[in-house]
Amino acid sequence: MSVLTLTGQCPSRLLDYHVDQSLDFSQNITNLYLVGRGSLWVLTEQSPGRTQSRMWILKVLKVQKVQKVLKEKSCSVLCDRSGLAELPREFPCEASAINVDKNRLKFLSERAFGTLPSLRSLSLEHNNISFITPGAFKGLSNLVELKMAHNEYISYLHTRTFSGLKKLVRLDVSDCNLFNIPDRIFLEQPALRQMFCIENNFRRIPGAFRGMENLTHIYLERNRIEAVAYNSLLGLGGLRYLNLQENRINVIHDQAFQDLLRLENFYLNDNVLTDLPRSAFKGLSRIKMLNLGGNRLINVSRTWFSDLVELETLYLDRNQLLFIEEGTFENLTSLITLHLNSNNLTGLPFPVFQPIYFLARLFLFRNPWECDCSLQWLQDWMESYKLVRHIPCSSPSSVSGLDLSEVVFSKLNGSCLDPGELNLTTASSEVVSTTENRFNSLVSRLLQQELGEELGNGTESLPNGTLPEGGQLSSGVGGRGAGRSLVGFTVGGLLFAVIGRSHAHAGLYCT
Fold this sequence. Notes:
Elements (H helix, E strand, L loop, with lengths): L2 E6 L5 E5 L6 H12 L3 E7 L7 E4 L6 H9 L2 E4 L16 E5 L7 E2 L12 E3 L7 E2 L12 E3 L22 E3 L21 E3 L20 E3 L7 E2 L12 E3 L7 E2 L12 E3 L21 E3 L7 E2 L12 E3 L7 E2 L12 E3 L10 H4 L7 E3 L5 E2 L5 H10 L7 E3 L14 E3 L2 E3 L16 H14 L31 H26 L7
Helix pairs in contact: 1-2, 5-6
Protein name: LRRCT domain-containing protein
Keywords: Leucine-rich repeat, Repeat, Signal
Pfam family, one: LRR_1
């Protein structure tokens, strides 16, 4: 049996293919082309007993069967990690995908890829490209996806950079060094749907996006955007996903989002917002997820969310919230998950919360809660639904350190008494010792192994909004065994301390 060796445009890629003797030569080339999935150039046949191999240049060969089959079954050109300093002179015209990632390309000339009518995906990521000649992609009339991310020397795009790409749907220029995108650059891309501009140097939202009604996704996280002007997002009526997280946004103009009537996922987290316009999200009735975490908000206005009737997840964590206006959540009838953790909240009156009493997930940890009678409703809710845990009390001093679930609210003439108002010198059969409560609370927390409830809105490389729900923290090497030993030692010491103190303060009680 003969052995065919393929040497393509990527000289480091070789492939052996055994000829099926039952097929004619043209069919073997067809199979070879499809199996190789590469940029075929030289075909070498070496048969047993032959001292000299035969070679065919596929460029010269005209095999009708190959051409016919390749119209139905396309091939991919894989030249990634090949050390290329310049593009090959020619690519197979039947190629549907070309990958030239992680090479040393610096320059793209006009019509750099020739005419490739079958090409649908082109990836040029992780190169050293610094300049793209206007018209570099002409001849790629059916290109759908263009990936140019991680080319840190690209700081400028010409108005005609993407000329000829009339069917382009997805464009990725993330992690380049772009400061702006020319306003009229996408005039020839009416089909563009997804725009990835992550981690560049934009100080404002590029005006190039205005009026692109077919855009559905815009990714602008980790730039240097400082403001969202009233006209920054005009004409984006088809937008469903907008990510502005991890910028430097400190002001949002009134009606800045007025045209985003189909928006469903909106990330504004990890900016420096201290306030929002009263009607910031007016008309955005289709939003399902809104992330405002990691800002500097102090108060929440009841007008912000009044139109968000389909909102399911709301992040307000990691702000500086002191107060939430009554009626803030009144119209959020679809809300399932609410993140209020890591703020400065001391209270949460029932009238503020009443309309969303059916929440499935509520995160309240890391707030300086004042566990008075205004939170008794929350304690009852915790006991009834078992969906919220770990709400440590900061005040009054008589219950400081206890969890809200452990606080006992007494009644006088049918009215609730705040723990700080109790007569601490009066004991009864129903009175509970504060010292004993604190000891039991501390022991239970030391023995508790479940840490999952502390998952609020944490973000790693997927900041804030993209972290999957649920998760577990690792205790590290030897964590469990070491933890049990430490707990045993600590509990013993605490028991001795508490017993000793209980004799000295036997008359100190609170309920």
